[in-house]
Task: structure prediction
Amino acid sequence: MSTVETGEPKATGGAARPRRRRRRTPAETAGLVCVYALLAVLIVPVLFPLYYAAVGTFMSVRELATFPPKLIPGGFTFDNLVNVNGAINLDRLYLNSVIMAGVITVSQLATSVLAAYAFVFLPLRRRGVVFALFLSTLMIPHEATFIPNYLMISGWGLDNTYPGLVMPFLAAAFGTFLLRQSFKQFPRELRDAAMMDGMGHLRFITRILVPLSKPTLMAVSLYVFLTTWNMYFWPLIITDHPDMRTLQIGLNSLKSAEFANPGLILAGAFVSVIPTLLLVIFGQRFIVRGLTAGAVK
Amino acid sequence: MTSSVDAGRSAPGEGPQRAAGNRRKWTGEHTLAWAFLAPSVLVFAVFLIYPLLYTVYLSMHGNDIVGNPSTFVGLDQFAEMMTPEFAKIFANTLLFTVGTVAPGVAGALLIVLLLEARIRGRRVFRTGFALPFAFSVASASVVFSVFYNPASGVLNGILYRFDLPPVEWLTSQDLAMWSIILTTVWMNLGYGVLVLSAGLGAIQPDIIEAARIDGATGHRLSWHILVPLLGPQLFFLIVLSTINALQGFGQIHILTKGGPADETTTLVYSIYQEAFATGSANFGGASAQALVLFLIVLVCTAVQFGVIERKVHYS
Amino acid sequence: MTTNPIDRASRNRRRRTALLAGAVGLTLTASACGGGGAGDGGDLTAPGADVLKDHDGVVEVEFWHSMETTNGKVLEALIDEFNKENEGKIKVNPSFQGIYDDTLAKYRGAVQKGDTPELVQIYDIGTRFMIDAKQAIPAQSFVDKDKYDDSKLEEGLRNYYTVDGELQAFPFNSSTPLLYINKDAFKKAGLDPEKPPKTLEEVREYSEKLTEKDGSKVEQYGLGAAMYGWFIEQFKARAGESYCNKGNGREGLATEVTYDEGTAVEVVDWWKGMLDDGYAVNVGRKTEDSQAAFNSGRAAMTLDSTSALGAILDQADFEVGTGYFPLANDGDPGGSIIGGASLWINGPGHEQVEQRASWEFVKFLLSPEAQSKWHAGTGYLSVNTDGYEQPEAKEQTEKFPQSTTALDQLRETKPNEATAGCLLGVMSEGRMANEEGWERAVTADGADPQEELTKSAKKMQGSIAKYNESIDN
Result:
């Protein structure tokens, strides 16, 4: 079990790098032109699916059905966005995904903070062994345990419910792992002083530790939210009622349960990636931290 | 790569030399420690450990037509995997894994190295290359399903414009897996770019600058200086992509359902099919396959750690 | 044999414990052990109208169904209408149970627990199971009791649901496959758009004319149809052949499927030829993909359910025509299997008033008025022949004259063993195995259709035997 220390990608890229201006040699200029050309060639196919989903969302079904496909829209319509809601109950599925990802994120944060606190600040016999066992749970793929989980949870009558959706994911060692790293940096004296003042463990955690560990908590939250938002396998198995499916499963329904309608498919996909798109654009720093630390998973 | 199992070996606040007066407090806090660990332990025990053990149990039993375990069959379910069909599934899984990991990691590396050149708009480019990361397996797969239609799809439309013959992306036995791989590589690219550029960002600027002053430029700088420095991130990316690929499911479920003619049936898809496909509910067989998956993930991780770790440079 | 691509696609989507063969054994044990015998008002005969008349208060009917999105909304509107008409007497509570497979799986669980709903909608290919489970009061019993005029029900449907001389269930929603053509493409190729091809041979001839190539670039394919098992079932029925033995499973439990014989092999052979020669495009097994091929004008003809008509007209930027589903060979007797889904009223465990109230609701759903609205709202055929005389259905016909083709094709069907369709406890699995063999035969290099179909038919023997064993016990 090990991980990568990327460190905080402080001032990623060249921003902080000293820039000494000197004259470029012709060879360097030629090289730079090559770099631009290569980047341009690469970025087109990388962005194309996103571009097409975005413009296709606002194209009429007839326009989408033309061949060869139009890559630049001729008209503009909200029909797909309106119809996609009727086809899969989009707002309900959106809500389901938010609830599922939200509950799991909050629960994993809470359980991880407590566990990490125990590992760092509380006395524990065979701490190393316990921690290693903790981490080893990350080696068990959910695909290898879903049958008993499915039998158990549907046996409790919890299929098609929020508890059934979130239960197996209420805790994960990953958050504990990351928070433990962060808590270990916490100045010992500060804690001792707080304790000396008669502050209880929980109060110390909520008043001092958590506020001071915000960057790590953000990283954990974003990571957990993102992975659960995108989860496919478990929701597919544990839900079948159209009102209890998640957005991701709804996308599959759009693709396979309806008559061919690329407009609805693209609209559904586009709407579903908006939150994650925003996260990637504005939360890159945290995401990278969380994901990189998730190495063990 | 730092080993993290050094886990609080010398954690403060612990030790036999504690004064006797502190003993009660120590016992109390020790109980509290377990109370704090309890929620996590409970979830792990009920939803990970027990299911894993029960999977072992199921794999050694036959099952009746509704999937209830019946008689003990020992390792029969595993023996039944010694078929050409299962060998094919294995080969598919291997192809899918290697096919997605190698170009995915190489592509991301190429992109971040290009971005290292002194170019304008580096930030915009990087964000652009990272955007596919916003796509989930489901959203990426449904968008690609629109691209792949053999008659009217966007990709064949583009080929048509260039006067090229159409391609049977998902309906040809030879190509279907590659189309799934293409979707997956695209989907994973953003993540690779994010991880590797974060790694580059963490490299001390003076190392690079020193190399530049020494006359290292362009691909020499990249290849001899940057790539070794990126060792940990590359290693991490390879491990993670491999494990992800071994668990790949959504793209197959959405795009091909394992077809045509089982050409895209991987281990995870096969497990799902055994357990949930029509008239199946073969939980025993599925459990045996699930254990194989578990072992493969375990071995892959171990091997990768063992082999690659020695070769990566630690910054 | 089944209804429309929605149903089929969703069935392909995922089947949780959808074991058609599945729990039959258990179910039968449970029913034999008398989850409800004649004792609790559960003998399998229909009660008379008096039971309801003598009852005070509201009778609640729980109704399990599988109608999603548009279809679900139209169904709920009908239920609201019925509940309003019967306020204070009967209240129907609809409960969506997921796709057809799920409903059947849940129904099976309910039988085990002795907790069935009053009324349940089950797809055509679950009919054999429903009969074997002995939970539902045979439809014939209600018909006889009330002297209900079931001759108004579409003949092909009665044919499908009549087993051992008795009507077993009330057909509710059904559709039939058609040949869709791009009339503009026909005109351009010098073909008469009013004369769609009638046989596979003609489909090929037309396709040769419709296929346009420019070097290696394809401008237009003749045909773009999905390898959907339902089509093979239809080809065989139109050729007068059974799909399974024992008189299509109607003279006893079928023991093997016959899609590796006769017409089925010819069709797959023909299909392979069409693909190999470039007159058809291989769109795989899903009709969504063939619709996309057709709607974009890339394939001049396709095969699809009547219920796809609305969606096709929405997207196609050309004149759409419809023709009969083609015959495999000239001179085949023709006709088509129509199953769809049907309604089953449960006996054991339910009061007579509840059974009666369910029947009142079923009668309402089968009325010309309700069927007309159903037909117009969903694209399913009207199971009541008088439904087409109603305003909503008439308007629909005016709007989509193409939809009359389906009706004509249906009306010309001669009810016989072949067009009745195969009854098989594991029919859904059978269809899938058939599709797999078909796909293998046309996509693998050097594959032989006969060999591949035989292989997949053989694969079915085990499942069928397992099912039959559980029935015998």
Summary: The radius of gyration of chain A is 24 Å. Residues 90-257+278-296 of chain A form a domain with the MetI-like fold fold (CATH 1.10.3720.10).
